[in-house]
Specification:
The chain is α/β, with parallel strands linked by helices. It is 39% helix and 18% strand. Helix 9 crosses helix 10.
Length: 296
């Protein structure tokens, strides 16, 4: 009988805004086989990793939650990451975020007090956001949970950290959206499809979405649409290996139209198929179609 393959030591540092989903993220990592430690001061990260035997293989995959409760600073976290890398552990900093209104609503719904006592709830959120500016900038993956329910957040994290992803190639998340509903907060590359003919003004197509064949054919019925799409694919196939070479693990691409139901959806769906054919690890979220169409 052959020996089981060894697992490369891996640490996910979970941080981010209070109320943005750190606890849910930690639970997902536990389900994926990570040994998770909550509320860990960054200055103790390397000590804890050594004690639990990460490198020796006793707990080869760890998730460490660090936040304002433990007094996290960018300097301390940077030193901890250097220590993890020197031990041969693949290290990813995962930052959970959401807009201020969403964070305030979540605290009000749960009736929890904010961990930073800075006067009003709005002042506490603003104070924490200021404290996290540098850490957010040094994070490898930023997940905005404003428009995500717990199931969508789980899918996003499973795609990024599932043990089945042994190649660890960069993951691309495509988000179709409508500009009238606001641009997603976390977008690395943005494409605007509003110059294309709008199916909304075709009576038979208005109730349909970009996932319906009739809308797809309409969106791609012009030379401009097809050239736009071909150039998108060409650009992304140029960018992906270069981002990977710089160590980027997660790339979010936004494709917007006016309402987020027709043009952006059709383009995102086709783009996902094209990138998958070229071996790119990709998922799709149609934000403004609701949960039913929030596919993977």
């Amino acid at each position: 009988m052959s020996a089981a393959p060894s697992i490369e030591p891996e640490v996910i540092v979970i941080t981010g805004m209070s109320g943005a989903g750190r606890s849910q993220a930690a639970a997902v990592l536990e389900d994926l086989g990570f040994f998770v430690v909550d509320n860990l001061p960054p200055t103790l990260i390397t000590e804890v990793v050594d004690r639990v035997g990460l490198v020796e293989g006793r707990y080869p995959r760890m998730g460490l939650v660090v936040d304002t409760r433990g007094g996290v600073t960018a300097e301390d976290l940077d030193e901890a990451i250097k220590g993890l890398l020197s031990r041969g552990a693949r290290t990813t900093v995962l930052f959970l975020d959401a807009d201020d209104g969403t964070l305030a609503r979540r605290f009000e719904e749960t009736r929890r007090s904010h961990p930073i006592p800075a006067g009003s709830l709005a002042e506490s959120i603003a104070s924490e956001r200021t404290a996290f500016v540098e850490i957010r900038g040094m994070s490898d993956i930023i997940v905005d949970t404003t428009d995500l329910n717990v199931h969508q957040l789980r899918r996003r994290l499973e795609m990024a950290f599932s043990v089945e992803r042994t190649d660890r190639s960069m993951h691309i998340a495509l988000i179709s959206f409508g500009f009238k509903h606001g641009v997603p907060r976390i977008v690395d590359v943005l494409f605007d499809a509003r110059f294309l003919p709008n199916p909304h003004w075709v009576e038979d197509l208005r109730p349909l979405t970009g996932l319906d064949p009739e809308v797809d054919r309409y969106v791609f019925s012009t030379d401009d649409a097809n050239e736009f799409f071909d150039r998108m694919v060409e650009l992304l196939l140029f960018l992906v290996p270069r981002y990977e070479a710089e160590g980027k693990k997660y790339l979010t691409i936004g494709i917007g139209c006016t309402g987020g139901r027709h043009r952006s959806v059709a383009i995102a769906a086709r783009l996902a198929q094209a990138l998958k054919r070229d071996g790119v690890d990709v998922s799709v979220l149609h934000r403004d179609l609701g949960d039913a169409a929030g596919g993977v």
